[in-house]
Amino acid sequence: MQHPLVSLIGAPTDIGAGARGASMGPEALRVANIGPILESHGVDVVDRGNLSGPANPWQPPVNGYRHLPEVVAWNRLVHEAVHAELALGRLPILLGGDHCLGLGSISAVARHCRETGKKLRVLWLDAHADFNTNELTPSGNIHGMPVACLCGHGPRELIEIGGQVPAIHPRWIRQIGIRSVDPGEKRFVHQAGLEVFDMRYIDEMGMRHAMELALATLDANTHLHVSFDVDFLDPDIAPGVGTTVPGGPTYREAQLCMEMIADTGRLGSLDVVELNPALDLRNKTAELAVDLIESLFGKSTLMRA
User: Is 231 marked active-site?
Assistant: First the structure.
């Protein structure tokens, strides 16, 4: 298999989060050697450095949105950076930053797919559905809203970033590992018809079955985007996140998830978000995230047929 050309894009902001510290995520991933480790697998890696956007003013919500102007600015920067790498035929890895940035990243991927006639599949690996709106949100933190915004439910200046509203259709998303959904959000997820493999499903059916369904019907004309929120993982193995929810995938379940994605050969873009080194222990969560990303790019125990 041909090795991809990978571009690392740092987005050092916690603008959409409820805790400070995700702004340090990109550097922690670099300290955990994300570039050299991918290069050791024959991947061509270019680190584009960090985007530079507005500081976090740490203000209360306005009309149910916290830091909306700053969130818009950061997502526009991310959108343009990710789209530029895709246009060069490279695989962008967004080093977040909080998960509000998935809006800029995935809207760029959707735009690229429209321009190249490709289908899009989004795997959303997360403890949370991130399908809140300003009416539903208990906090106003926009990192709980990117999937809703991508599906056209949100403020005009956010939902229009990709140039088309909605940027994506709910049918294109598979959510995996979900175990914390706000009451109003539950109804909204159900109404929208999101395909969700929550932890109960994974407990009952196993990660393998969930991933087989999540990856079904991928073909050579499908761009696969993985949006990996580090709080997807069980906090026992990944404490360095601001929104821990007990009962996430184990190390082996997470590895299987990543290896099955790698086996498709379709990975086209990746977000790694919500890593918060301020809450971590000796960078162990960053190292685990890099270990899992390594598996996305083909690290496995044995040669597989």
Answer: yes
List the catalytic residue out of 98, 182, 231, 253: 231
Q: Which distant-in-sequence residues (6+ apart) come within 8 Å of 55 by Cβ? A: 70
Tell me if residue 126 is catalytic.
yes
Find where tokens 């390594």 sit. 294
Confidence (pLDDT) at 302: 76
- Domain segments of the chain as ranges: 5-296
Our answer to whether residue 112 is catalytic in this structure is no
> Distance from CA of residue 188 to its chain's centroid?
20
Average pLDDT over residues 90-114: 98
Unique residue bearing structure tokens 């740092």: 10
CATH 3.40.800.10 fits 5-296, yes or no: yes
Instruction: Read off the tokens for 131.
Output: 């399908």
Q: Rounded CA gap, 87 and 39, in Å?
A: 22
236 marked among binding-site residues = no
pLDDT at 1: 53
